[in-house]
Design brief:
One of its GO terms (molecular function) is unfolded protein binding. It is found in: Cytoplasm. Required for nuclear movement. May interact between microtubules and nuclei and/or may be involved in the generation of force used to move nuclei during interphase. This is Nuclear movement protein nudC. The chain folds into three domains: about 30 residues, no CATH class; about 100 residues, Immunoglobulin-like (Sandwich), CATH 2.60.40.790; about 40 residues, no CATH class. It has four helices and seven strands; from the N terminus they run ααβββββββαα. The radius of gyration is 27 Å and the shape is elongated.
C-alpha cells in the first residue's frame, strides 16, 4: 500500500489521507474507551456505569499488559500493550463515579504508539502532529540547549559569529593579551 502511495498525485494522496483518517476515526470511536498520547505518556478514559465505586474496579497494570473492568464481569478492555510501561509511574483514578482515567508512562519516551492494545485497530503514527512545546515546559539542560541552538541560528542568519565562535575569539584575545611578546600578525586561526 505504501508503494502505490508514492505514485499518487498530491490530490490523490489528500483523498487517500482523508479516507484513512475517516476510517481510523470510525475504528477508534467503536472502542470501549478513548485515548490520547504524547511522546512520553498515554491517557485513556474508560466509561463505567454511573455510580461505580473504586473498590468495584479490577485494574491490572503489567509491564506490557493492561486490564480495566468491574469485578465479577468481563473486562471492559484487556490485552497486550505494544510497548513497555513504567509500572511505578502509571496510575488510574475514578472520576465522577463514571469514568476510569488511566495514565500510562511509556518506558520509551521517543515512540508513538499505534494503538493501546495490540489486538485493537492501529492509527498511522506517521500522521501524528505533536503539540508545540513551550520552552518553559523543557527541563533546564534541554531548554539551555534549545536556546543556544536558536541563538546560534539567529547569529548565522545575520552573518555574525555563533556562541562557540565567540568563545574561541574571546579565548584568543585573552591569550594575546597575556602574551604581548608573541606576534600574531601572520597567524591563521581556525
Amino acid at each position: 500500500m505504501a508503494d502505490d502511495y508514492d505514485k499518487l498525485t498530491p490530490e490523490e494522496r489528500e483523498v487517500r489521507d482523508k479516507e484513512d483518517r475517516a476510517r481510523e476515526q470510525k475504528e477508534q470511536a467503536e472502542l470501549p474507551y478513548t485515548w490520547k498520547q504524547e511522546l512520553g505518556e498515554i491517557d485513556i478514559l474508560v466509561p463505567v456505569p454511573k455510580g461505580t465505586r473504586g473498590k468495584q474496579l479490577n485494574i491490572v497494570f503489567q509491564k506490557k499488559k493492561l486490564s480495566v473492568g468491574i469485578k465479577g464481569q468481563d473486562p471492559i478492555m484487556s490485552g497486550e500493550l505494544p510497548h513497555e510501561i513504567k509500572l511505578e509511574e502509571s496510575t488510574w483514578m475514578l472520576e465522577d463515579q463514571q469514568v476510569v482515567n488511566v495514565h500510562l508512562e511509556k518506558v520509551n519516551k521517543q515512540q508513538w504508539w499505534p494503538h493501546v492494545l495490540t489486538h485493537h485497530p492501529r492509527i498511522d503514527t506517521t500522521k501524528i502532529v505533536p503539540e508545540n512545546s513551550k520552552l518553559s515546559d523543557l527541563d533546564g539542560e534541554t531548554r539551555g540547549m534549545v536556546e543556544k541552538m536558536m541563538y546560534d541560528n539567529q547569529q548565522k542568519q545575520m552573518g555574525k559569529p555563533t556562541s562557540d565562535e565567540q568563545k574561541k575569539m574571546e579565548a584568543l584575545k585573552k591569550f594575546q593579551a597575556a602574551h604581548p611578546e608573541l606576534d600574531f600578525s601572520n597567524a591563521k586561526i581556525s
